[in-house]
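Quick question: what would this complex look like in 3D?
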Amino acid sequence: MSFCKDELDKIIREYPKIKVEKFNEKCCVLRGSLNVSYTEKDYSVIEDFQIEILITDKYPHKVPIVSEIGDKIPISYSHKYSDHSLCLGTDIEILMDCKGTFTIKFLIENYIKPFLYSFRYYQRHKNFPFGDRSHNTLGLIEGYMSVFKVTSEIDALYTLETAVMENYRGHLDCLCGSNKKLRNCHPVTADILRLLKQKPHLKQKMVDDLKEIQKEVKKAHARYQRKTK
Amino acid sequence: MIKNEKKIREIKNLVRKLDITLEMFNYAKSKYEKVAKYLEFKGIDANVYPQGSFALGTTVRPYREGKDVEYDLDAVCQLMVTSKDSIAPSELKENIERILSSKELEKRAITSYDECCTLEFKEVSGFEFSLDVLSAVDEDSLKKQDLLLRAEHPDLIDDAIAIPKKTPNSYRWMTNNPKGYKIWFDRINQKFLLANPIITRESIVEKYANKISIDDIDLQMERSALQIVIKILKRHRDVYFSRITNGDDIKPISAIITTLIASIANFANPYLDVFELLEYVLNDLLIYSKRQSLSEFEFSQAYNNKEIITRKSSEWRIENPANPDDNLANAWNSNPDLSRAFFEWIDIIISDFTNLEKFSDNSYITTLSNTFGSDIVKRSINIDDYAPKYQQPSVFSSSQKTKPYKSQNVIL
């Protein structure tokens, strides 16, 4: 369990209303009250939420499972699963947001609190203050558009394919066909490819996501074939 | 709704702060009187008078993008001698706007829009405002006779005016009746003013530390429970719809809010206090919301004498009491989002005021700020009375503005 006692102590100190419910080699469960106190567009939420954070032995390569256990967020909420866990964002965005190594504090401050705030904002205004990702495969692709900083779904897919298939080399030609070096022409992509070399779990995540996207594209194609026959 | 005496005083005080002050009122009045004098000087017989919230005493400081911004006041410039037959609508608008462009009026800017022109005035004692001036002539007698046949209040029709209305290629005449509307509104409001004026003349003198005498105070500065309820709902609307997608397009117009509240209040006991009247009005609007789901027949069976909002053959109608040609809910019939947004908003108001009465701590301050805007709350309420340890909520950094997601493919 690479979730070490030091980090655990830091969390308990920083968030005194969160307690350790379980801690062994396989997992760690944190449970307690989290205070959200934010304002956006002059709409404030100052409220405590009961949450649970399940950290598996794959941490920090896998995003912990976060649940709202105080029954404030209904199952019908579009970003909550039937087991009360919350979908804080696409995994790749969360993992890449902190360059592949994150802390629980990072997760709480940058994902859990904004999620809880967004829920209350959505309840009143029926829109998301910071936007939201589409469901399923489309949302995944949108996540990659953000990670690769591209503006089209096609560019995101192409870059993802390349990230999965190519290993970064300093003299790699740019993927866009400009004949320039990747590191000069599209430095963001170069940085990501460089990072993937150091963080194989991120590359694996991209491999899995690409497989899922390709599977969905195949299914959609098959549906289309059936319709047009 | 709100029964706690302290909260009642505070919210009334908050709403009072949203009103234009006596100073502002006099300054704005001096401006439109100056326009009238200038026209007279130019040999033009014109009547210049306030309309809308300025005339009715229901002004609230507008709220845009989380801030309280400058006031928009409305006035009509009606040429008295010119008849509708002798001038084209576009010509009338151009002529008046040309005159209003004169430097004599000491304005900062004039901008012409489709339906009116806006005069912006220099700041005076921290007060900035713009005046939207509508050009008009008296409506012709043939049209007035036609209106009389269908009017709910025939005695108001004689004041009807014709204003230039933009069409895709030019202008046509459209009937309007702000004077008649004010007479209708004042009749209802008078009952509430006499029963229970909220700001009495004496208290205004007190407020200005006796620097002015009672005689200086325009009757306009008295505010009834009816006027305050209208202000509360207008302000709530402004804050709430500022965060709704396409809020500007779907928010209920002030004419609808004012007409509905005054029409409903007409049946209420004029001695009701602000929040008793608010509750009365909202309860009635909840009944009207059933028109969304019940047929005309089902609704009439369930509810007696509820004709302020009608829906015959699926057509929403809220009649302008001073102009039978004007269906204030006309836009509801071309966009179903509008009626839905209106009644959803009523639900939110009820929930907000229920919570305001229920909470007496941090949550009260938060709900009040979310309802009316945090700035005005800070300026009106002593937060320490409710939450001595109240801490301002934080602002999100850009890295915190993350997007939730959901996948059906997740293995849990």
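Answer marked as accepted. Chain A touches chain B through 49 residues (CB under 8 Å).
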